[in-house]
Every structure is written in structure tokens, then in C-alpha cells.
Amino acid sequence: MAEADDAGGDGAGSDTSNQILNGVYFGWVIQGRNVSLQLPAPVTPALHGLPPASPTFTGRDTHVEELLHGLAPGLQRQEAVLVASVAGLAGVGKTELVVQTAHQASEKPGWFPGGVLFIDMFGYDTGRRLSPAQALHSLLDALGIPAEHLPQELQDLSRLYRSVLAEYARQKQRVLVVIDNASSSEQVGPLLPTDGTTAALLTSRHTLDVGARLHDLDILDERSSVELLRMAVFKARGAADTRVADSPEDAAAIARLCAGLPLALRIAAALLADIPSRPPASLSQALSDVHHRLDQLRHESHAVRAALDLSYEQLSEAQARMFRLVALNPGPELSTEAAAHVAAADQQHTVQRLQELVRAHLVEAGAVWGRWRVHDLVRVYAGERAGEEPTTADDITRLLLYYLERATRADGYVIDLTEPTPRGYPDRTQALAWLDAERDNLLAAAVLAESTGHADIARDLPMVLENYLSTRGHPEEWRASAELAVRAARTLGDERGEARASVSLSDALRELNAHNEAIAEARRAAETFRGLGDRPGEGMALRALALGLGAAGQHEESLRMSEQAVPLLRQGSNRHVAAVALMNYGSHLADVERYSEAIDALAESLAVLSQTSKSVKALGLLNLGWALDSAGRRAEAISSFQESIACALEVGGLWETDTAARASASLGELFAEDEQSDQASFYLRQSAALFAKASNNSLAAEALKVLGLTLIALEERREEARSSEFTSPAHERHYEQAADALAEAIALTRHTAETTTDDVRQELADLLISLSIPLVHLGRSDRALEAIREALAILRRLTDEDPQAHQPPLAAALDTFAWALAQDDTQLPAALEAASEAVEIATGLAQHSPDEHGELLQDTLERKAGLLDELA
Fold it and tell me: What is the per-residue DSSP string for 91-147?
């Protein structure tokens, strides 16, 4: 039975109706033949996010040519190295080199018609560093895959990303991937294409072992450094400004003091451009003074620090304060609103200050308007400057309180509670959009709060984010933030707060299938609440404990804990939480087959949930439908499932979509049992579409498989009744529908089968065998045999790895192969050969386990005997 925490979901847009005929569509349907389905609103890929190329780029022609050579299409496979890694020290111009190369490559006809993906990994900034999963979310979003379609696990995200790139390449829309500022092979590995066509450029301060063509980028020589200075000043001031050309010695001195680092050179040029009357000798002298003060620093950073010092000293007080504030933000980008709040300024003046900093090359515009970022080295520098200011501690406090206050208001919209009405955002959609945009900042803010002595915020912010993280599919972040809240509460000596955070941690651990850890956390929390005399708190912990025990299969103990939780929670003021606990109690009763009591408990919980939350009401109706069906009350079960679907789709969030998918699957199976093929087909197809929308392709494939097998079984029963081996034209429709459903299931499963678990590869083989059955009945024996041969190849590989586990399905597949071959009289000898191999395998299995494999042996022997008779 499905169970719920006190959590809700998000909204979704309306769907559009499409029909796909004999085509390819990447997203909901990978391969389709005569398929009608509902598709989500179209999403436009964002494949033009490459930063602009600087017009002052110089001194790198050889590197650009080398990189372009590796990107050119049509190379012989043995010559092609489709990943190039540019390495060098910070500020040396790695990013500019790959951006320049990417622009040139994208402009060459036929090289990258699909566009360019660009992502900054922030690999050397521990506060902003992207994990591979975070980066994949961003890249898949740019490729047009909606967030609600994304799986949770890193390997699934990587497989989906690589499959999308491969599909672009297959459809002659080759994409170039640019991965900037990676710190390790582990960080960048899952992001590298593997289809043999898609190309990638990456940058790092380290030489990464990722099988790439390596390009080491050194500092600019003096001539190129001076030329960069000249070009940058020319761009800013025009041809009339000849200071660099007129003062070659001073320009060369600036180039040397900047150590050939393009970042420092550009800042130096900006300083000259800011004051047209300033001679280069003045800047050279200033850099020399600072350089001598900082000559004990590492070579990598001293020239940049010198330039930054000078740039900082040119700022007004308001500009300098804004510069420090931007650097205080713990996440990747700061919003204008947050900056204005901390600076206690209006947004117009805040934008003005930030734009001034952008022009001074100290701040960069973010990915979208209204967001701002700084280079990692500049952030370190600004942080040091902020550390010198007595007001910095207060600034950090204001920033943290801003995030806490805004997140608290947004949390009121996450669960679709009908009471009380939340305030602070125009509507639920915008509240969730704010949480999505600020998620990284919010998580980083909790970490910053812990490290800066704001333990109360470090305790409270994760709890505010609990509903959001749990319902939006971020279990890893949920666990990490809950662990932080536990530590913070412990630091404060807040036993109740620690127990509350432990309940959240237990729920997160359960979502990650860490059942033993989840149970232990919930037990500790229950003991703490009991010692404090907090009965509703104890009930909350026991609810979590019951869920953990149930997930671990300990249903009797789970039921006991759930039974204790309900009256304790009823003593509290939150009737919604008590109703959720009662719903879970009903589910636990159904788990131990006490269906009548389960139905009563679920009905009672729904009386409250109908008034408090449509999201959880939909789940309660799903659970009630399962209990009613198990109790033999089918008509009532069907009604409950249908109401669950309607309720869930009305809310439309990711969590609710999953609920609707499960209810649709249950209805489909019920109608299949009653041999109502049209109704079964409708609900099973709807289930598959909803599971895909909820980013659960495995369950989507399972729903399609159930549909295919249901239709096959239905038609086979009809054939037996007609005493005819093959279907009549009047009933070919069922085999056509079965073949289509199984083909879709195969498409959903295929792209993960080569790089995932044996179970998925076994599932792919099973689907291929199942597909062969309707194909044979439809007279498409060639396609049927092709499917079986592919399945046999998979099963033979699996059998070599683990004979005990995979010999039974191999024998069954060989038996089906013999049946399919026997439909053609000329193939009878080959059919007998396959049947003989099946008998040989089944005989060995039956000798060791006659009870388990006796039926398989009997089936294969009958097939072989029949073939021998036909040949005789």
C-alpha cells in the first residue's frame, strides 16, 4: 500500500494532444507506431546559452586550431578524440579559449546544427561547486527535458542525458557540450557524451583523466599580453586612445606584473579605460607597489590579487559594499531582490550598483536577468575584503534571515492545504518557482548558518524546506539538510528540535531505501519526545517509525507503531497530520489483510483530508481503492480509483501525478481481469504516460508490458475457445495493440539496459520475447525472430555471468524461439535445434530443483516432441 508523509506537490500546465505515426519522438515516446497519446506542453530546448566571445581575444590561434581539428565532423573513427580538456592555472583564459573555439565551431556549416550546451561547474569553490547530478539537471533542462521528467539517481540522470545527446546526433542535430571549471574526473565524468558523435570541450585547473585529448594552456607571452591590453582599451575608448601603443615599456611592465593572466590583464585594461587621463606608467607603478607587498603569495594568485586590489580601490563606498555583499552569498547566483534586502536599498539602485560592478569586471550577469555571480577567485578576494569590515557579520545575518523568511512563506504553498490561506506570493506556482530558483542558495545558506554560528537558522531552514525537498524529488538534499538540522539543534541543546529534525531525517532515509537507518532515527526521536512528555511529537516519530518498518517489510510491528501514533497525534492541534497518520494506519491494516478495518480507517481519514489537502486525499483514495478491491468490493474500488485520478490531476504536481499513475494502473489491471480490453487499454496507457511524466520510466514500461501481456492473453483465450491457433482478422486489433504497447515498453527500457543492472537487461529480454508472440500471430515472423535473437544474445551474456539466475529464462526463450521458427516449415530443423537446447538446459535445472523447474522441463519436452513428429 502507498503511504504518505505530511507533504504535498506542485502544479502543472495543461497537456496537448498529439498523434505520432511511424516516427521518433524523444521524451514521452522514443519509438512509436500508430500511437495516440497525450503529450505535455512543448518545451523549447535552450541550446544557445554559450557566453559571448570576447573581441579582445588574442595569442591563442594555435590552440584554437588544434581544438577545432578535434571537433570537425567526418574524421576517421580511429583519429577522432571527441573530448578535449583544456587545463591551466586560474585566470589563464581557459574559459575564453573554449568559448572562442565553440563559437567558431558552431558557425561552421554542418558541424553542430543542434547547438551548444554550456555549463560552469564551479569546481574550485566549495560553496558553489556543482555536483554531477545538479549539472545534469541543468543540462537536461537546456535540452528541453522538463524537471518533472528527471529521475533521482545520478546514473539514471547520466543515462538519460547521454541518450538525449545520442538522439540529437542520430537525427543529425549534433550538439557540442562545453563544460567549464571542473575540479575532478568524478565531477565531470557523468557529463561526458559516449555516443561516439557528440563532442565536448572542458576546462579545469587540473589535468583530468577522462580519456580526453589534453591541451595545457600557459600564460600569455608578453607580446600577446600587451596586445590584449591595447585591444581592450581600444574597445572601451576607441581609436583615439593610443596610450598603450605610445607607452610600450609601461605596457610591457603591466603585462609582466599581471603575469600573463588574461583575467588580470582585462581588469588592468578596465582601470585604464575608466580614467582616460591616467598614464600607463601610473598603473605600472601602482601594480609594482602592490606586487612587492604580496610577493610571498603563491605565483598563481599574486598578480590577480594586485589587479583586484587596485580595482577595488577605485570603487565608491556603495559599489564596494555591493561587491562584498555579492560575494557573501553562499550559492551560485544572487538575486537582485536578495542583494537589495541585505543592502537595505531599493531594487533600482541595487541594479545600478551591480551593473557598475559588471562593467568593472568584478561581477558577472547570471544566466537570467536579475541574477548575479562572481568569478571564483574574485569571490575569494571579495570574501577577504568582507572579513575586514565590522558590518559583515550583520550582513550575513540579514542574508540568512532573508532566505529563512522567504522560504517560510513559500512553504505555505507547497502542500495544497486549504487552510490556512498562505500569504506572501501571488500564487502557488510563483512560490514554487521561487523555491526552484533559490534551492541551491537555500541549501548553501543552511550550511553557512552552521559555520557562522547561526545554529537557530541552521536548525530551522532545513525544516522549512522539508516539504519542498520531499515532494519535488530531492531526497539526497533532504537527507543532508535534515542531518545539518540535527547537528544544529544538538549545538543549541534543543532536544525537541533535534527530535523533530530526526523525524525528517528518518523520512528522507526511508525515501533513499536506507531502512535500518530510518528506523533507528525514528526510534531515537520517539524516545526523546516521550521523555519530554510531548505526546504529539511522539506520535509524529512513531508515524515515521511505522513507515520505516513497513518499507522494510516488518508489517506487524509497523502496524503496532502506527496504531500507537494515531491517538497521540490526535492530541495535537494539527488535524491534517493526524488524518495522514490515520490514512497510513489504514494502509498498514491492509498490509496484514485486515481489510474491513483498513477500509473504515481510510474512510475516516478521508473525511478530514477532503477538507485539508487534495494531494493527500488523492493518495487516500488510492489506498482505499486497493483495500476495497482486496475485500472483493470491486465496483467501489473502481469508483475510488477514478476519484483518486481526478483529484490528483486537478492538483497536477509531480507527487500527485505519481498517485494518478498508480490509480490508473490499478484500474487497468482490474478491467483486464474482467476482460474489458478497451477499458484496460485506456487506463494502462494513461498510467504509462503519467509514470513517464513523473520521471518513472521503469513503471511506465511495466504498465505497457501489463497491457501487452493482457491483450495477448485475452486473444489466446478467444483462440482456444474457437479451437484455432491463429487469430482471425476481426481480432487482429488486439495483437496489433499488444505489439505496439510492448514496443513502447522496449523503447523505454532499451536506453538503460546496456549500462545498468542485470535486472533491467533481463527485463529487456523478457519484453523482446513477449513482443515476438503478437508479431508471429500477425504474420511478421522476420521481426519476431529478430526480437527473439536479440533477447537470446542478452540472456546468453547474462547466463555467462550468472548461470543459476539466468538459465531458466534462457530455456524459456529458446522454447519460444523454437515455436516461432516452426511457423515456417523450412525452419523446422532450426526449430528442433533450439528446442533441443532448451530441453538440455531445462533437464539440468530440473535435476537440481525438480519442484521449481519441472514444469519448464515438461514444456520444452513437449515442444521438442511435437517438432520431431512434424519432421517425421
Answer: TSSHHHHHHHHHHHHHHSTTT-TTEEEEEE--TT-TTTPPPHHHHHHHHHHHTT--G
Q: What is the 3-state secondary structure (H, E, C) of 259-305?
A: CCCHHHHHHHHHHHHHCCCCCHHHHHHHHHHHHHHCCCCCHHHHHHH
SS3 30: coil
Measure the CA–CA gap between 690 and 687, rounded to whole angstroms. Answer: 5
Instruction: Pull the grid cell for residue 514.
Output: 536506507
The boundaries of the domain holding residue 327 are 317-389
Cell of 64: 584554437
Residue 711 lies in a domain: yes
Residue 80, judged by CB atoms within 10 A of its CB (0-12, 13-18, 19+), counts as middle
Residue 106 lies in a domain: yes
| Domain shared by 211 and 68, yes or no | yes
Measured at the alpha carbon of residue 372, what is the angle toward residues 370 and 374, in degrees to the nearest 5?
Answer: 175
- pLDDT mean for each 10 residues of the chain (872 residues): 43 40 39 40 57 85 88 60 78 86 90 90 79 90 81 89 89 91 89 89 83 83 88 86 87 82 82 85 75 33 58 84 91 93 91 84 81 78 85 94 95 71 77 92 96 97 95 90 98 97 97 95 97 96 96 93 94 91 94 94 94 90 96 95 94 84 94 88 93 86 91 80 53 84 90 65 91 91 92 90 85 90 89 90 85 84 86 76
Say if residue 65 is in the same domain as residue 203: yes
Same domain, 142 and 281: no
Question: What is residue 1's three-state secondary structure?
Answer: coil
Cβ-contact 326, 385 below 8 angstroms:
no
State the Cα–Cα distance between residues 800 and 329, nearest whole angstrom: 54
Task: Find the CATH number of the domain harbouring 740.
Answer: 1.25.40.10
- Give the sheet arrangement for strand 199-204, strand by strand: 115-120, 175-182, 199-204, 83-87, 213-216
Q: Which amino acid is at 97?
A: L
Cα–Cα distance measured from residue 497 to residue 503, given in angstroms and rounded to the nearest whole number: 10
Q: In sequence order, which residues have a C-beta less than 8 Å from that of residue 628 and are 6 or more positions away?
A: 599, 634, 636, 637, 640
Prior bond to 420 cis, omega within 30? yes
Q: What is the CA radius of gyration of the chain?
A: 32
The answer as to whether 555 is a domain residue is no
Question: All 3 cell numbers of residue 743?
Answer: 514496443
Residues 220 and 59 sit within 8 Å (Cβ to Cβ): yes
Under a CB-based contact definition with an 8 Å cutoff, are residues 214 and 154 in contact? no
Provide the whole-model pTM. Answer: 0.66
Q: Which of 184, 216, 248 is where one domain is finished? A: 216
SS3 string of 175-227? Answer: EEEEEEEECCHHHHHHHCCCCCCCEEEEEECCCCCCCCEEEECCCCCHHHHHH
Task: Cell numbers for 758, please give them.
Answer: 542485470
Same structural domain, 322 and 237: no
Centroid of chain to Cα 365:
25
Judge if 236 and 202 occupy the same domain.
no
Separation between Cα atoms, residue 651 and residue 216, nearest integer Å? 53
Instruction: Look up cell 559571448; give the residue.
Output: 52
Contacts of residue 234, Cβ cutoff 8 Å, sequence gap at least 6: 241
Give the three-class secondary structure for 13: coil
Q: At what angle do helices 280-293 and 262-274 cross, to 10 degrees?
A: 130
Whether residue 304 sits in one domain with residue 176 = no
User: Are residues 745 and 803 located together in one domain of the fold?
Assistant: yes
Cα three-residue angle 598-601-605, rounded to 5 degrees: 135
> Taking the chain, what is the end-to-end CA distance rounded to the nearest angstrom?
55
Choose one of 286, 313, 340: the last residue of a domain.
313
**Parallel, antiparallel, or unpaired for β 16-20 and 35-39?**
antiparallel
Residues 754 and 807 in one domain: yes
* C-alpha to C-alpha distance for 757 and 742, rounded to whole angstroms: 20
Cα 522 to Cα 564: distance, rounded to the nearest angstrom = 14
Domain count within the chain: 4
| CB 261, CB 303: distance < 8 Å | yes
